Amino acid sequence: MKKIIYGSLVWFIVTLFVVYAFCLNTAAAVFSESIKTSLHVSNVGVSIAVGAFIVGFAFMQIPGGYLLDKYNARFVVSGGVLLLALGNIIISFANNVILFSLSNLIQGIGAAFAFIAAGVIISQWFKASLFPILFGLTQTLSCVLAAIIHYIFSVALATHTWNEIYQLLALCGTILFILTLILVKSPSDYTRPESLSLKDSLSQVFKNRQIALCAIAATASFGTLLAYAGFWYLNVQKFYSVEMLDAVNISGMIFIGIGIGTPVLGWLSNRIKSRKLIIHSSLCLGTMFLLMCLYLPHYQIQTLVIIKMVSFATGFLLSGAMLFYTVVSEISSNSTRGVALSVTNTGVFLFNTILMFFPYLFITKISTMFFTYLWILPFFIIFSILLNYFVKESYPK
Question: What is the mean pLDDT of the chain?
Answer without folding.
Answer: 85
